[in-house]
Write a structure and sequence with these properties.
- The structure holds 4 protein chains of 4 kinds.
- Chain A contains 16 helices and no strands.
- By secondary structure, chain A is mostly helical.
- In chain B, helix 3 packs parallel to helix 4 and helix 11 packs across helix 12.
- Chain B has 13 helices and 16 strands.
- Chain C is of the alpha/beta class.
- Chain C is built from 10 helices and 10 strands.
- Chain C has a 6-stranded mixed β-sheet, sandwiched between helices. In chain C, strands 2-1-4-5 form a 4-stranded antiparallel β-sheet, with helices on one face.
- Chain C is globular and about 60 Å long.
- Chains A and B meet through helix 2, helix 5, helix 13 and helix 14 of A and helix 1, strand 3, helix 3, helix 4 and helix 6 of B.
């Protein structure tokens, strides 16, 4: 959305850092003497995939509150396929993504006409509707009891199913890496430029030859695709799903991950997921007060860090790899990215 | 710039805290402390039940520790309860169980309440051979495939039939019923048990309605439900708070028949909400609140937790004592040793009377605690026990 | 020769009133046409109808002999008709260069996937676009502020940037909506020169403007609208002496006087 | 089913719950109209209002209407403070404001859960008795709510239309910048608007509380209804809230008596989705910048 970094040195250096991080990531399971930490990490990475999906939707200036709903579509698709028809995990996984994306594509044509807060409210209603649907159509979703007996993922050429947290960690790590690479490529491609254009001024974009509807549809579908894939991972990690896991509050959570992480950079949703997933665990022991602390955290965050944590990290990052991106001016500019008002 | 520093501070704190929780070291399992895990709804709608259960467990633990703990071999163990809130959700329960097992290193978990948390947790606990003493209404909770899962609370499966038989015996004029319940797994489960029981005793179910949790105005629902002119209005697994509103509004719009409730106890709350409308209300009660021993327990709880004691909790007071005795006698708390001992138990006599293990017929495994219960009625805003039933 | 743009009997009804009524005029390739008229004469509405932001109630617009009424504005833009906006519409949060780059992108032939994998073609295309964008910025004398966020530019520069974005789409026909409104004489003069240079560079131009002397100086042909209708068309000197036009403007002046009093 | 329940009954039920919904949604839509803030914490102010009334009227035996007024003032003041502390710094950042509102909701609910407990309480109805006839049953405590709704609505409307501040409100709602030009202290208007929104929420909670039961989670149900109502009627439009509320109430009642509650809930959401597609700005809403 702004000038790409010109300095070759900077790019090379950042590639180096990313590579280092990846290698580090490979050894994480050894850093956890404690399975629970690993469990949280797996959970956080699953959330990261889904939050990343929402980020793609936000990129076009549409704030969706139905993301958990699309996650649910994915989760149920892959769960039911593997349980009822016992197809292999990978098939269910892909089907989950495509299923969610197709529903998004179908609905998108109609609902993406809505802008700003009206889109937000519609998707809120949509999420509630999907939730009730999950509860009240047992034939499809197992109703309130949810889907029991989901099997852990099985991967071709890998002998036994990925039951252990460590094994699952590598699976979800690969998914996150691929998703991240894909979205990164997407953002820096001409299409990424188009998404920025539509978000910042749909009027101007249209007047200069972009087709906003098409761009928003593609972005929405990609976002929901990731939500679906994440949903599938979620189902095959917890091995049990029920409607209550996909309420409007879950959607809010994914939005929070983007905002607290910083919705304007790829690192945002990932950081957000890594910060927010363990948060309830921190508070779990303050039984009575946990809710209060949870709420206060957000208020404080919005008050002092409305752009999320990435701008802070970004400054450190710049210090690290020299002049990457551009100083000051544009983070606040970018914050308004998902602002329901902008572009409408 | 000042704010910038503040920002860094905030982020720093959060990051450190996050790391702290992930890297919290595992405490060595071999101490003179016996850790018992507890998972249940400690916040939100299910809190009254959850706290009642926790109270039962913690008070029982208190008793044991006061009496000098549990001697096994040369070490005597004092009991430490580690309680986590699952917010009445599946993922919450799984997460809590994960933390208890792999971080706190417990191999006995008491709870949770509710079928969804129960079913969600099962995979984790069974694959780790962790003993679970739960409280949920779903039939799926117990099965031969889940050798480590027990249930301390009798469900509508156990008490619906005797309760309804008693009603038919004492009020033969009641011929038809309508059921209202929450649209969740417990609500539907209880309803199905009750329907079966109604059929056995020859009462016709004219209509049933399930409502979403959070519903406040029941008048539209009741208007439709009571249009079928039933003799009995059955509140099913409706939460006490909602039950109170339903009672109040049903009477308001002129329902004169008998109102009864099987699942989800909490009659004091119902009376508090419904007021005079609660008079004549028939229900299943785990205890007789007018019995001195029970009164004492209730007072002890209220003193400790500053809230009324939910009757459900008594099963967990009794059940925890049963569990601790078992550990004492078995001289082990390894899941298998303990499990075999408990399965071998003839019977257990506690505060309220005699308990036995049952459930082969219904669940194919003898892991269901069969407890005595009471048929209670609200008279002039007071709980009156009409009879005690020993299944 | 055949006109580049042909407007025939174009009309737009908003509820009761006709914002544009039976408007017809033609624009020869390479010309600069002025579209003037008192406030509320329907000039901007006419632009919106031509570029597809609004659908006309009647009439049609032909571009290069092809009917473009009913097409979506982005299709019209791709065909080579671009407009600027009265209240400068930009990508406020992005750098000046990025603003222009987004304009250029329309002409790029890089598909979704080849863009995604950053194929050689895509890379080449990106390079070309960059070069062109920078050239355009020099052309509109904004290359010095190219990494400034658009919203931080002074008003005059914003107007210029608006034109640059339009130019980036390589239009055959450019519709400028009040390009010098609110500018000081010096800025106005510069914008005038810019528009001429754009025209010399090969783009045909239709300009809506209040500043009479500006339009008179700039355009060879002028179309005058009042209450949505064309009341005159011709060379500047003809328009200057046209009774209807004078009446219209005087009328407005009276109104204005009446309002101000 | 309608043959067994008199149609009149169904309609009356619908209109009654409809007027409940109007009360719940009024402040919510006002706050959005002025501040463009989707105030997720609205339900919690509703709950707070109910609890203030509970303590004053239910426990200390203060006159009901006095208690109601007191609760409105208390919650209104709280709202003003909250607006100053939390929302002023985030002005014009809609998404940040929305998220803070969510945080506020969670926080208020948590605090109340700690201080008041989670068990349901009940308020003695200020009026009792029931109107009964062969074709209609109508409890008077509901009648009271309808009456209060009507009065509040009338007062509020008069206030908006005639009072100087009301005009300022409308000016800001129209176009904040223009209002600022005319020398209207926009920031103070925002604060006051938020305070009034909270007062309306408190009144709603206080008067509806006795009809249902009181608990710290009552706000969630309320906000959900308010949401649906304003989507139906059009965000920020007061007449819209009225229409939306009544439409929703009637729809629910009719659907419930035809198909049962579960279906009616789903149909409710289907309805608003359809309406949003048909009229993106709600039944009476107008396009906003």
């Amino acid at each position: 959305m702004t000038e790409r970094p010109v300095s070759e040195r900077a790019r090379a250096l950042s590639c180096l850092v990313i590579a280092a991080l990846l290698i580090l990531a490979l050894f994480v399971p050894w850093m956890f003497e404690n399975q629970f930490g690993l469990y949280l990490l797996d959970m956080a990475l699953i959330n990261a995939v889904i939050a990343l999906g929402l980020n793609v939707v936000l990129k076009t200036g549409q704030v969706s509150m139905a993301h958990a709903g699309f996650m649910a579509i994915g989760a149920y698709t892959s769960a039911q396929l593997t349980v009822k028809l016992d197809v292999p995990f990978l098939v269910g996984f892909v089907a989950a993504g495509l299923g969610a994306a197709l529903v998004a594509l179908g609905l998108g044509r109609i609902i993406l006409r809505l802008k700003g807060v009206y889109f937000l409210l519609f998707t809120f209603a949509l999420n509630e509707f999907l939730y009730l649907l999950n509860k009240n159509v047992p034939a499809l979703t197992g109703g309130n009891d949810g889907v029991v007996g989901i099997k852990p993922p099985t991967i071709p050429f890998v002998a036994d199913p990925l039951r252990s947290k460590a094994a699952f960690y590598y699976l979800v790590l690969v998914v996150v890496a691929l998703a991240l690479a894909f979205v990164w490529a997407l953002y820096r491609s001409p299409f990424g430029r188009a998404m920025d254009a539509v978000r910042e001024s749909e009027l101007l974009a249209a007047a200069t030859g972009y087709n906003p509807m098409r761009i928003k549809m593609i972005a929405f579908s990609i976002g929901c695709l990731l939500a679906g894939l994440g949903g599938s991972l979620y189902a095959h990690f917890l091995l049990y799903i029920a409607p209550f896991s996909f309420t409007f509050w879950e959607s809010v959570n994914f939005l929070l991950m983007n905002i607290i992480g910083g919705s304007t950079s790829l690192a945002g949703p990932i950081l957000g997921a890594l910060l927010l997933t363990p948060l309830p665990e921190l508070l779990r022991s303050y039984v009575m007060w946990q809710q209060v602390l949870y709420g206060l955290t957000f208020i404080v965050f919005m008050r002092f860090l409305p752009d999320g944590v990435t701008p802070l990290c970004a400054s450190a990052w710049r210090a690290l790899v020299g002049r990457l991106g551009r100083p000051a001016a544009e983070p606040p500019a970018r914050e308004r990215a998902p602002d329901p008002r902008s572009g409408s | 710039m000042r704010t910038w520093i503040r920002n860094v501070a905030i982020v720093g704190v959060l990051a450190v805290a996050a790391l702290a929780v992930i890297h919290e070291p595992v405490r060595a399992a071999k101490t003179a402390e016996l850790k018992i895990g507890f998972v249940s709804a400690l916040s939100g709608a299910g809190m009254a039940w959850g706290m009642g259960m926790l109270g039962g467990l913690e008070m029982a633990a208190e008793d044991v520790n006061k009496a000098g703990g549990i001697p096994i071999g040369d070490t005597t163990y004092t009991i430490k309860v580690i309680a986590y809130d699952d917010k009445y959700t599946g993922p919450g329960a799984v997460q809590a169980a994960q933390r208890l097992i792999s971080q706190d290193g417990v191999n006995i978990i008491v709870g949770p309440i509710g079928s969804v948390p129960m079913l969600a947790m099962a995979d984790v606990t069974e694959s780790n051979k962790v003993l679970v003493f739960s409280n949920s209404y779903t039939t799926k909770a117990l099965s031969p495939k889940k050798p480590h899962t027990f249930r301390l609370t009798p469900t509508s499966m156990e008490f619906s039939l005797p309760f309804l038989q008693w009603i038919v015996k004492n009020q033969p004029q009641l011929k038809t019923a309508a059921i209202v319940g929450p649209n969740d797994e417990s609500g539907k489960e209880v309803a199905s048990h009750n329907e079966a029981a109604y059929q056995k005793v020859g009462i016709k179910v004219l209509a049933k309605e399930f409502y979403e949790r959070g519903t406040q105005d029941f008048v539209p629902l009741l208007t439709k439900l009571l249009a079928s002119k039933p003799d009995i209005l059955d509140l099913d697994g409706t939460t006490p708070g909602d039950s109170g509103v339903v009672l109040k509004q049903a009477r308001q719009i002129g329902f004169q028949g008998q109102i009864i409730k099987t699942g989800g106890p909490g009659t004091l709350e119902i009376i508090r909400v419904a007021g005079a409308a609660a008079d004549g209300f028939l229900y299943v009660s785990p205890w007789d609140p007018n019995e001195p021993k029970v009164k004492a327990l209730m007072e002890r709880f209220e003193a400790k937790y500053k809230m009324p004691y939910n009757p459900l909790g008594v099963y967990f007071y009794e059940g925890s004592h049963m569990l601790f005795d078992a550990i004492k006698q078995a001289k082990t708390f390894s899941s298998d040793g303990l499990r075999q001992h408990i399965e071998g138990q003839k019977e257990y006599t506690g505060l309220l009377g005699r308990y036995v293990w049952g459930g082969e017929a219904e669940y194919g495994i003898r892991h269901q605690w069969i407890a005595p219960f009471y048929v209670g009625q609200v008279q002039k805003g007071k709980e009156m026990m009409l009879t005690k039933i020993n299944p | 020769m055949a006109p580049l743009l042909e407007v025939r009997g174009l009309s737009k009804q908003f509820g009761g009133l006709a914002a544009v009524a039976d408007l017809s005029f033609a624009v020869e390739p390479g010309s600069i046409v002025g579209l003037i008229g008192p406030n509320g004469a329907g000039k901007t509405t006419a632009f919106n109808l031509i570029t597809g932001q609004l659908a006309p109630t009647a009439g049609e617009v032909r571009f290069n002999g092809r009917k473009i009424t009913g097409l979506a504005s982005y299709d019209i833009a791709r065909m080579g008709v671009v407009r600027t906006f009265q209240s400068t519409v930009l990508y406020p949060e992005s750098s000046v260069l990025e603003n222009v780059l987004r304009g250029c992108a329309v002409r790029s032939r890089v598909g979704f996937w080849s863009g995604l994998v950053a194929s050689r073609a895509a890379a080449r295309d990106e390079a070309e676009i960059r070069a062109r964008a920078l050239e355009l910025l020099r052309f509109v004398e904004l290359d010095t502020v190219r990494s400034e966020a658009a919203r931080n530019l002074p008003y005059g520069h914003q107007k210029a940037l608006g034109i640059a974005i339009g130019l980036a789409t390589q239009p055959e026909l450019m519709l400028l909506d009040e390009p010098v409104a609110g500018m000081n004489p010096e800025e106005t003069a510069r914008t005038g020169r810019l528009i001429r240079r754009v025209n010399e560079a090969g783009a045909t131009i239709v300009v809506v403007e209040h500043d009479m002397s500006f339009v008179m100086g700039l355009c060879r042909t002028i179309v005058v609208m009042n209450y949505g209708r064309k009341i005159a068309e011709g060379r500047p000197d003809e328009i200057r002496n046209d009774a209807a036009v004078i009446a219209a403007y005087l009328g407005v002046d009276e109104d204005a006087a009446a309002q101000s009093a | 089913m309608l043959t067994e329940v008199s149609i009149a009954q169904v309609l009356v039920n619908g209109l009654t719950s409809g007027s409940f919904y109007v009360l719940m949604a009024l402040g919510f839509t006002l706050i959005f109209g002025i501040m463009r803030l989707v105030n997720f914490a609205h339900g919690e102010f509703y709950m707070l209002g109910a609890f203030v009334v509970y303590h004053l009227y239910g426990r200390l035996g203060v006159n009901f209407f006095l208690a109601l007024a007191a609760s409105a003032v208390t919650v209104g003041v709280l709202g003003a403070v909250v607006e100053r502390v939390i929302f002023v710094p985030l002005r014009s950042r809609e998404l940040s404001m929305l998220m803070s509102a969510l945080g506020l909701q969670i926080t208020l609910q948590g605090i109340m859960a700690v201080t008041e407990g989670v068990e349901a309480l009940s308020l003695p109805a200020p009026v009792s008795g029931v109107y009964r006839s062969s074709w209609l049953i109508f409890p008077y405590d509901r009648l009271l709510v309808v009456a209060v709704a009507a009065v509040v609505l009338a007062l509020f409307y008069a206030f908006i239309t005639w009072s100087k501040f009301g005009q300022a409100l409308r000016a800001v709602a129209q176009d904040a910048e223009a209002a600022l030009m005319q020398g209207i202290p926009v920031n103070r208007v925002y604060t006051l608007a938020f305070a009034i929104g909270c007062m309306l929420a408190a009144i709603a909670g206080g008067v509806i509380g006795p009809v249902f039961s009181l608990h710290v989670y009552m706000g969630q149900a309320a906000i959900l209804k308010a949401f649906v109502v304003v989507i139906l009627g059009g965000l920020g439009s007061v007449p819209g809230a009225v229409v939306g509320g009544l439409v929703l109430g009637l729809a629910e009642s009719v659907f419930a008596s035809l198909f049962g509650v579960l279906v009616s809930d789903m149909l409710g959401f289907l309805l608003i989705m359809l309406i949003l597609l048909w009229r993106p700005f709600g039944l009476l809403g107008r396009a906003t910048a």
